[in-house]
Design goal:
The structure is a homodimer.
Chain A: H1 3-10, H2 14-22, E1 29-30, E2 36-37, H3 42-54, H4 59-62, H5 83-113, H6 117-122
Antiparallel strand pairs in A: 1-2
Chain A binds a DNA duplex through helix 2.
Chain lengths: ~130, ~130
DNA sequence: CTAAACGTTGACCCCGGGGTCAAGGTCAAG
DNA sequence: CTTGACCTTGACCCCGGGGTCAACGTTTAG
């Protein structure tokens, strides 16, 4: 299949596929006229790339998944080589969450000082509901 | 005082101050030779701008704070005009946190499938400790 | 034959908050 | 006069993930 067909099958755009290739995530064959040619398994591969991107991994990060990028990573096992990458990203996410929690507290505080006590109280600690 | 002095006093850079001005957050006088001239109160103003930026507000958002940007917003009341801006930003932060929580769960899950069970368990639910 | 619908590469645009030159004006001290 | 520290505006660079042209080649249908 050619790039347009793959883009359609994978629910993305031609531009994105060329970008993934530029980032070293895809290596399509070329027909004599220069067109990119993809096999059907590349649909899964592209889906995996997009899944990992949605998790906040960068294109560079995803290169660590190359050995298992053709597998069904949403369900099955992920290649061990990527564990370090995931762990690092996880740490970043934890940091981001902690920072946002701090920010949240300060915003609620500022809201209270803005004379919007009702509004502030409504937002007081909504996240507590998720654990208690 | 001139821009270099203010930058030093406010703990930031000349470039940043010019950027804030470009964004409409500062309006210094000009000396006959074109140099920017700032009063001492502008130090607080710049500190406020930087505080709000650190909370994730954008330069555009901060324009809503113009009426109270000279006050001591870290301690005293914030001008009511900015309440809506803060509330909106708060909603965004809540969304971000929720999204990151989801991402976190998926990352831990992926980590487990990567054969790094110990690592995954270590990260299992560290945020639960903050509420329980 | 021709037009449409594909494909190709290359290059500029976006966002946010500035960093980092470049090229030049101004002012005090030596 | 000269040096050096300060100031000015303008313009390009960064990151990530592409969007959106431009200018051109190829294939397919009528």
């Amino acid at each position: 299949m050619r790039i347009g067909e793959l883009a359609h099958a994978a629910g993305t755009t031609v531009r994105a596929l060329r970008y993934y290739e530029q980032q070293g995530l895809l290596r399509p064959d070329r027909s004599p006229n220069g067109y990119r040619l993809y096999g059907g398994s590349q649909v899964t591969r592209v889906a995996n790339i997009r899944l990992l991107l949605s998790l906040g991994l960068t294109a560079t990060d995803i290169r660590a998944f190359l050995p298992c990028l053709g597998d069904d990573i949403a369900e099955g096992p992920v290649c061990p080589a990527s564990a370090a990458v995931i762990a690092r990203r996880l740490a970043e996410v934890d940091d981001r969450i902690a920072a946002l929690d701090t920010t949240r507290t300060r915003l609620v505080d500022a809201l209270a000082r803005a004379g919007a006590e009702k509004l502030a109280r409504a937002h007081e600690a909504p996240r507590a509901r998720t654990t208690g």
